[in-house]
């Protein structure tokens, strides 16, 4: 029982490394699942750097108290995507949340237990980089609800793969199944001459997936239109189906949908 | 995994045991600003230790993946080009220690001596310390809560035998949390010259960087300036420029003007920097910071 009782599937988006695109992948996954007719909630537990409100053009909104708990912010009129982020609790957008671990843990527990998420097909949980307080707190709080697993995001270069290896160990230690690994920022196609340059090196994600024995879900190339969409809070999945980033993002959503067919609880 | 009580504010903190009352406590802001930890004897010990360190520079961001570690490494190399300058690079990213890999020092081990831990020396005048050197496997995860991370940072500052150092560069993880508070608190009596803040041009980074700047103001940490990394990409084939991370809200330039903070420089995206170590260009990458210091 509790506020997550009517949430069918919970997916954590992890990395270990910062700046690889966890929030981007979380947002695009939510948008893609919405386009597949699903109701999606996003829980942003990056308390120091909450990126998602802006990515969905709901920065400045507020979370309200309702009868059964905090009411999440709805991103659209149809209420098909709801979002909870510390971003909504800050008085000023540039205010820094300078909190030590224990206080962060307490808020994360509240985000899980005190938000009236209602009926959701999916809850996507975006996390900050690392393997520390936030990660332990959210895994502990979600454990009773048997999350579907983790999507782990990396970029191709060694310095990312190095951190993500450690994150995979974290998943193993806390008993969190890895749904698959995504390699983001995988090459950049020059818009002027179409030459593809491996800006952040190449191949690291696929190799890591092989080494760790986890499914490789695909490579998402760098696309400035994707960056711009996120900056403006636009629906990239709807607006840019011809983008080179679209196939990989779409296949991640397909993987999730295929693992969670309707009719099986 | 570490079993630390959820409401513990930190074993090293003067607030130890009062954690449960921290919620809603009127002193909470005081604790967050570090005043509560002033009783920690380590602060004086670190002050003594830091007497042989002339300049201390923190490399911060708030945002992950903008190139803090890359910049820290380049700055360290740039300063160490003069063999009479002693440089120390301290990596306090406990969960994601990137510095050993970036410096080509993976697999190196730290040694204990009579005077403390010896840093790993890349050159005679460039010493490095990172939790990465204490891990036995690249798959080892450091799954530590705040208090344990703080303890490690204290040890790095108090127990490492840095020797006579002209510049101590401290690379930090993203965020505004335990590691950042701890390094500022532990160095409180030892005087930090200031922080170099790294960002990339797009708003999703600037959003976090403004918080980091706000953190610096809160803890009275001087800001040396901002570096905008991944600022434009020149296609190696056609030589035309693209903005992979577009400065949708004016980039670091607009933010620095707005907040009246120096913009130290802009560094373009160069695939060679993301790749193997062979492509060092320290003087190109770190033009502003050494001269400002």
From TrEMBL, chain A:
CDD domains: Mrp_NBP35 (cd02037). The keyword Lipoprotein does not apply. GO terms for cellular component: axoneme; centriole; cytosol; nucleus. Keywords: 4Fe-4S, ATP-binding, Cytoplasm, Iron, Iron-sulfur, Metal-binding, Nucleotide-binding. One of its GO terms (biological process) is iron-sulfur cluster assembly. Pfam families: ParA (PF10609). One of its GO terms (molecular function) is ATP-dependent FeS chaperone activity. Coiled coil: none annotated. It is found in: Cytoplasm, Cytoskeleton, Cilium axoneme; Cytoplasm, Cytoskeleton, Microtubule organizing center, Centrosome, Centriole. InterPro entries: Mrp-like_CS, Mrp/NBP35_ATP-bd, NUBP2/Cfd1_eukaryotes, P-loop_NTPase, YlxH/NBP35. Transmembrane segments: none annotated. Its main location: cytoplasm. PANTHER family: CYTOSOLIC FE-S CLUSTER ASSEMBLY FACTOR NUBP2, NUCLEOTIDE-BINDING PROTEIN NBP35 YEAST -RELATED. Component of the cytosolic iron-sulfur (Fe/S) protein assembly (CIA) machinery. Required for maturation of extramitochondrial Fe-S proteins. The NUBP1-NUBP2 heterotetramer forms a Fe-S scaffold complex, mediating the de novo assembly of an Fe-S cluster and its transfer to target apoproteins. Negatively regulates cilium formation and structure. Heterotetramer of 2 NUBP1 and 2 NUBP2 chains. Interacts with KIFC1. Interacts with NUBP1. This is Cytosolic Fe-S cluster assembly factor NUBP2.
From TrEMBL, chain B:
The keyword tRNA processing does not apply. GO terms for molecular function: 4 iron, 4 sulfur cluster binding; ATP binding; ATP-dependent FeS chaperone activity; metal ion binding. Its main location: cytoplasm. Residues 54-210 form the AAA+ ATPase domain. GO terms for cellular component: cytosol; nucleus. GO terms for biological process: iron-sulfur cluster assembly. SUPFAM superfamilies: P-loop containing nucleoside triphosphate hydrolases. The keyword Iron-sulfur applies. Keywords: 4Fe-4S, ATP-binding, Cytoplasm, Iron, Iron-sulfur, Metal-binding, Nucleotide-binding. InterPro entries: AAA+_ATPase, Mrp-like_CS, Mrp/NBP35_ATP-bd, NUBP1/Nbp35, P-loop_NTPase, YlxH/NBP35. It is found in: Cytoplasm; Nucleus. Component of the cytosolic iron-sulfur (Fe/S) protein assembly (CIA) machinery. Required for maturation of extramitochondrial Fe-S proteins. The NUBP1-NUBP2 heterotetramer forms a Fe-S scaffold complex, mediating the de novo assembly of an Fe-S cluster and its transfer to target apoproteins. Implicated in the regulation of centrosome duplication. Negatively regulates cilium formation and structure. This is AAA+ ATPase domain-containing protein. It comes from Muntiacus reevesi (Reeves' muntjac).
């Amino acid at each position: 029982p509790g506020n997550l009782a009517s949430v069918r599937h919970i997916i954590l988006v992890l990395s270990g490394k910062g700046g690889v695109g966890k929030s981007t992948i979380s947002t695009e996954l939510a948008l893609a699942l919405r386009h597949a007719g699903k109701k999606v909630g996003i829980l942003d537990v990056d308390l120091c750097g909450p990126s998602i409100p802006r990515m969905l053009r709901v920065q400045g909104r507020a979370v309200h108290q309702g009868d059964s708990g905090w009411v999440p912010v709805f991103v659209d009129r149809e209420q098909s995507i709801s979002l909870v982020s510390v971003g909504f609790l800050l008085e000023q957008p540039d205010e820094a949340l300078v909190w030590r671990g224990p206080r962060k843990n307490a808020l994360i527990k509240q985000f899980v237990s005190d938000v009236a998420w209602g009926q959701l097909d999916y809850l996507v949980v975006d996390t900050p980089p690392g393997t520390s307080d936030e990660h332990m707190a959210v895994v502990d709080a979600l454990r009773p609800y048997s999350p579907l697993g983790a999507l782990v995001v990396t970029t191709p270069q060694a310095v990312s793969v190095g951190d993500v290896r450690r994150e995979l160990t974290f998943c193993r230690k806390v008993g969190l199944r890895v749904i698959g690994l995504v390699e983001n920022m995988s090459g950049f196609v020059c818009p002027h001459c179409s030459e593809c340059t491996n800006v952040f090196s190449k191949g690291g994600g696929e190799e890591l997936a092989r080494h760790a024995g986890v499914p490789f879900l695909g490579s998402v190339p760098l696309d400035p239109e994707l960056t711009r969409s996120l900056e403006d809070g636009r629906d990239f999945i709807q607006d840019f189906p011809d983008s080179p980033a679209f196939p990989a993002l779409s296949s991640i959503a397909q993987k999730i949908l295929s693992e969670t067919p309707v009719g099986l609880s | 995994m570490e079993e630390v009580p959820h409401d513990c504010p930190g074993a090293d903190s003067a607030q130890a045991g009062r954690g449960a009352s921290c919620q809603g406590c009127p002193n909470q802001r005081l604790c967050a600003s570090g005043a509560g930890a002033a009783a920690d004897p380590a602060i004086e010990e670190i002050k003594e230790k830091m007497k042989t360190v002339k300049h201390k520079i923190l490399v911060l961001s708030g945002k992950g993946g903008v190139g803090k570690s890359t910049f820290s490494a380049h700055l360290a190399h740039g300063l160490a080009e003069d063999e009479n300058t002693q440089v120390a690079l301290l990596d306090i990213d406990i969960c994601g220690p990137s510095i050993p890999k970036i410096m080509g020092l993976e697999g190196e081990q730290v040694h204990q001596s009579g005077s403390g831990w010896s840093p790993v020396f890349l050159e005679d005048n460039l010493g490095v310390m990172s939790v990465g050197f204490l891990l036995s496997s690249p798959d080892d995860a450091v799954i530590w809560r705040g208090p344990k991370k703080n303890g490690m940072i204290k040890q790095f500052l108090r127990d490492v035998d840095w020797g006579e150092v002209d510049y101590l560069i401290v690379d930090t993880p993203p965020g505004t949390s335990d590691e950042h508070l701890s390094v500022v608190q532990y160095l409180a009596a030892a005087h930090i010259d200031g922080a170099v803040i790294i960002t990339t041009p797009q708003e999703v980074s600037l959003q976090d960087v403004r918080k980091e700047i706000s953190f610096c103001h809160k803890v009275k940490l001087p800001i040396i300036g901002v570096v905008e990394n991944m600022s434009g990409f020149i296609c190696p084939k056609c030589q035309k420029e693209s903005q992979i991370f577009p400065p949708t809200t004016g980039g670091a330039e607009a933010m620095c003007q707005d907040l009246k903070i120096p913009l130290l420089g802009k560094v373009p995206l160069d695939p060679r920097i993301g790749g193997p170590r062979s492509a060092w260009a320290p003087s190109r990458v770190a033009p502003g910071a050494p001269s400002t210091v």
